[in-house]
């Protein structure tokens, strides 16, 4: 009896010393022959059999649960979850950005090198052509010039011998032409391979002004443009100087009106602008008229601006006065002549609100 009691007590003590959660492992170590599906499981079973003691299961111990970075348990699908931090993403983006910047810089440098090479080639080609006889100026064509003769143009335009189209200073040629009183504007064009084209816009004669000579013994006719620029003194047609100028000058001078009665002391200068107020008033009247009255004027007496007198081709004289109220004065004159056909000899519109007229 005493022996049986000691055996029971030993069995009870053995069971009490075993962990409560190791029953399944104890059964497997006591002779369970179920095969393990993982290499790690076989090793643990062998160890348990050698030690003869049960070890707690992974599933029963919280500390033994696999972390996210551990290898997957046997029999479960494998899922790779990379552990990428925000810093590593920033580093990747920064590297990519730096790479793009390097590539962009390399492309820019390549473009600059290519552009420099092209520019150098063009410069070399330009220098060759600049002095090359291939583009030598062989023909100069002038258009728009009627008051300047070919001799006048040649005197104004100086093209060096052997000059090429690229070496000619076209701006300088244009400025040289514009220094002449007849030339209002000039443009010079290159027409490759050998032609220089000059387009001239000339001033027209607006009137011929009778200017007293310095000795007050004679009258010298001067051509003046509508903008008040003195063009030239008109020589006698049969004189040596008259034979050397363009015939167009005489044709225009005969077709325009004459400004007479200019006080003594007026000294015109070719290319300068008229500053005489009497002549200026007469030109303002002529430029301001818009009807047939302007074409009918053949003479303007400009002794004084207040008493400027117009003479028409039909003999009617108009005391026009200053260039104020040009349109109204013009309207009144036309109305008087229309209401009294072939009866009017003189009209006074110096005070346009009180016009008067005198019959033949």
UniProtKB/TrEMBL annotation:
PROSITE patterns linked: POTRA
Cellular component annotations (GO), alphabetically ordered: plasma membrane
Main location: membrane
Region spans: Disordered: 1-99
Domain POTRA: from-to ranges: 135-203
Pfam families, per database record: FtsQ_DivIB_C, POTRA_1
Listed InterPro entries: Cell_div_FtsQ/DivIB_C (IPR005548), FtsQ_DivIB (IPR050487), POTRA (IPR034746), POTRA_FtsQ_type (IPR013685)
Basic and acidic residues: bias regions: 90-99
GO biological process assignments: cell division
TM segment ranges: 109-131
Places the protein is found: Membrane
Species this chain originates from: Parvibacter caecicola
Keywords, in A-Z order: Cell cycle, Cell division, Cell membrane, Membrane, Transmembrane, Transmembrane helix
Identification of the protein by name: FtsQ-type POTRA domain-containing protein
Biased composition (Low complexity): 1-66
């Amino acid at each position: 009896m005493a022996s049986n009691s000691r055996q029971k007590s030993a069995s009870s003590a053995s069971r009490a010393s075993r962990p409560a959660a190791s029953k399944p492992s104890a059964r497997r170590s006591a002779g369970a022959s179920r095969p393990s599906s993982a290499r790690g499981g076989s090793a643990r079973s062998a160890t348990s059999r050698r030690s003869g003691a049960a070890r707690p299961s992974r599933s029963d111990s919280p500390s033994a649960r696999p972390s996210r970075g551990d290898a997957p348990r046997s029999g479960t699908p494998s899922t790779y979850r990379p552990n990428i931090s925000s810093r590593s993403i920033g580093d990747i983006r920064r590297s990519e950005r730096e790479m793009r910047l390097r590539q962009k810089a390399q492309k820019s440098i390549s473009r600059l090198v290519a552009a420099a090479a092209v520019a150098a080639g063009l410069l070399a080609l330009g220098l060759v052509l600049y002095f090359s006889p291939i583009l030598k100026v062989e023909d100069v064509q002038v258009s728009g010039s009627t008051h300047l003769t070919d001799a006048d143009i040649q005197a104004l335009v100086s093209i060096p011998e052997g000059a090429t189209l690229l070496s000619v200073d076209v701006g300088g040629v244009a400025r040289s032409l514009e220094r002449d009183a007849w030339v209002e504007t000039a443009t010079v064009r290159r027409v490759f391979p050998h032609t220089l084209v000059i387009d001239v816009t000339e001033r027209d004669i607006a009137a011929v002004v009778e200017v007293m000579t310095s000795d007050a013994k004679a009258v010298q006719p001067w051509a003046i443009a509508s903008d008040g620029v003195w063009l030239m003194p008109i020589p006698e047609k049969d004189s040596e100087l008259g034979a050397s100028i363009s015939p167009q000058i005489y044709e225009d001078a005969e077709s325009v009106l004459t400004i007479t009665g200019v006080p003594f002391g007026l000294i015109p200068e070719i290319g300068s602008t008229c500053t005489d107020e009497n002549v200026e008033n007469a030109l303002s009247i002529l430029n301001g008229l818009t009807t047939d009255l302007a074409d009918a004027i053949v003479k303007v007496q400009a002794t004084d601006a207040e008493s400027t007198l117009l003479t028409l081709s039909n003999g009617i004289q108009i005391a026009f006065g200053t260039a104020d109220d040009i349109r109204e004065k013009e309207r009144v004159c036309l109305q008087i002549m229309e209401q009294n056909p072939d009866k009017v000899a003189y009209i006074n519109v110096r005070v346009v609100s009180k016009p008067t007229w005198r019959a033949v």
